Amino acid sequence: MGFFSGFKRSLDAWINSIFKKKRAKIGLYGPPNAGKTTLANRIVHDWSDGESFGSVSPIPHETRRAMRKEGVMINANGSSIELDIVDTPGMATKIDFKEFMAFGLSEQEAKKRAKEATEGVIEAIKWLDDLDGVLLVMDSTEDPYTQVNVTVIGNMEARKLPLLIVANKMDLPNASPSRIKAAFPQHAMVPISALEGSNIDDLYEAIAHNFG
Amino acid sequence: MDLVSGEKLENMTSMEKIRLILDKVKTGRIVVLESGLTPDEEVRLIEMTMTEIRVDEFSGIEIESYPSKKEGSLFDRLFGRNIKGRLTVIGPANQLRTIEKDKYQISTKVSVGD
Questions:
Q1: B66 near A CB under 8 A
Q2: Which B positions 33-52 lie with beta carbon below 8 A of chain A?
Q3: The complex's ipTM?
Q4: Where do the structural domains in chain B lie, given as residue ranges?
């Protein structure tokens, strides 16, 4: 990061902290299959009459293009914020088409999906330069110390941008949001089930508080 | 396995570091960076990795580092440059596998000749 871009980010963060802007462009980040699109769909269904972001699937990298919805107004606990929401493709450091064949895709389909998934990861990374904050969605049944989580958190800290950790899939019996909290205690975390909607009001309050 | 000193990394640009890592990893080497990469360099490495993935040749990297640490002078902190990289292990995705990781320890398994 250059001297001037670092200075500009620090200045922007300072100005935002004073004027508390009520509109923010936030990205949903996380590893594949953490539930980013399920959460994005729930937010737009709860707060707008817009269409869903996209389809969800147990096959990793279902979302391979970033999708944006503008002007989603969230009201929670007496405060409101207008969000531009960007649902990004799952971040990964490796993509092997054979992994998709294990889910029943043909070799040709798997190779096509792998190619599109690599482009999706690049797209997700490019969006980092154009956001006001991030919802980092983690699967709370998985080990939180993945490199994707470490890298996204490191980048938001370096850019001095707000980050809210969403410990998703708390409806599953082996979910452990406390493990996520212990791994990244310096950041706010909200345990939810995007699928069932549990605790979702707590998330909206945290969004209004952290990004407003 | 190549263990790259922090001193060597300090004298390299971000692009030189990324090229060094990918060139080594694509030939099957495991790279250990004493002082790691900055968060920005980590995402650039992932981005570059994605452009180099080829079916049946290179499926990507396994990379493991500890969460970043805030250090540096007041001047560094003022301009957001106080996030320092920490020891990082990088290898071919088909040869290096993380078994366990926490704040203080990374356990990996290396397969030879895959």
A1: yes
A2: 38-40, 42-43, 46-47, 49-51
A3: 0.85
A4: 2-110
The answer to whether position A60 is within a domain reads: yes
CA distance A46 to chain B (A): 33
| Interchain contact A176–B (C-beta under 8 A) | no
Confidence of residue A39 (pLDDT cuts 50, 70, 90): very high
Domain that holds residue A172: 23-211
Any domain includes A110: yes
User: B22: which residues sit within 8 A by CB, 6+ positions away?
Assistant: B45, B48, B49, B52, B61
Q: Is the pLDDT of residue A19 over 60?
A: no
Q: Is the pLDDT of residue A41 over 80?
A: yes
Residue A32 belongs to a domain: yes
pTM over 0.80: yes
Q: Check if the beta carbon of residue B34 is closer than 8 Å to that of residue B3.
A: yes
- How far A106 CA sits from the closest chain B CA (Å)? 14
**CB–CB contact A125 B63 (8 Å):** no
For chain B, give the mean pLDDT. Answer: 86
Any domain includes A18 = no
- Per DSSP, what are the bridge partners of residue B62? B91
Using the predicted structure, report yes or no on whether residue A21 has a pLDDT greater than 60: no
CATH number at residue A135: 3.40.50.300
